[in-house]
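User: Hi! Is it possible to get a structure for several chains at once, not just one? Here's what I have:
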Amino acid sequence: MKKVHSFELNAVPPYSFDLTVHKPAGWWWATPYEIYEADVLWTAMRIRENLIGLKLESLGAPMKPRIGCHVYSESEPREELKGEAQRSIRRALRTDEDLNPFYEMALKDDILRDVVQDLRGMRTQGWQDLFPALILVVTLQMAPMRRSSHMMDLLLRSFGDRISFEGREVTYWPSPSKIARTDEKDLWNVAKLGYRARNLKSIADELVGGFPTMEELSEMPYEEAKGRLMTLRGIGDYSADLVIGRMGIPLDVWSAKIFHVLFFSKVPESPRESIPELRRVATQRWGEWASHAFVYILNDLPRISQRIGFDLTKF
DNA sequence: GCGTCCAGGTCTACC
DNA sequence: GGTAGACCTGGACGC
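Assistant: Yes, the chains can be modeled jointly so their relative placement is included. Here is the combined structure:
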């Protein structure tokens, strides 16, 4: 692949490129196989079936943020595609978001006060591509983290795409059309998806048939975007919130244990049943910033554990 | 070594 | 409109 397009982005300070694309909890920005070295991210992205390589680099500092973006492709892309790539990257890096109101609120909150100091400038997850986000949430369902990672890894290695540019190799998620063409039995046996194979194939079919893109969903009001996602087979309340990454709080059994300890100083007897109550408390406490609080806390568990004298990383 | 339980939810059948 | 029960797989745990 050769370099076909370059541009720079400014961001609303404070902005931490490092914490945004390389989350402390270990989450990737676009694919688990991307490469992050010294403030430079080598990754990939798919725009309407076109797979492109990306090199994103921090050129500034948290209070004077600038990000250099370089696009790589096998052939010269159309201007329209360049524009779409630019908008998606900008949205997924969340450079236009102003976190200062969140920080003002957090400084008055006993749980968040130190957390926002630890992770100052970190943006929450901004999916650049819809299908990978849906693959993630489908594989997260009813499985321990190790098994979810195994399923995702098998999907990437068996059905994903590999690209090379500037001496780096990145493996990216399969396209919806590739999964739509794949036999459900192969998803079951090769990627070990189990009952999720049917759901993922159905989702891929819907996307191929003309479902809103991540870009289009991001422009819809929260409730409308969530409603559209929940029409997909296997996507419920939790998964839709995780994909949208805006106002919702995607509490699951794992995070319910953590938030129960933080709010009530004890492990819940039934984590699943405690979710509605935890959601109510979180919304009341953090209002419109609840989803930010959620992501910040889950990315700062080791330091919170030290401060409260309870190991939240053991769940 | 073997059986049981349950996990970073969702769908369906049944009331 | 609300809610048990089923669902793949595989690691952890008790015996």
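The CA atoms of residues 301 and 313 of chain A lie 6 Å apart. The domain at 130-244 of chain A is CATH 1.10.340.30 (Endonuclease III; domain 1).

User: Great, thank you!
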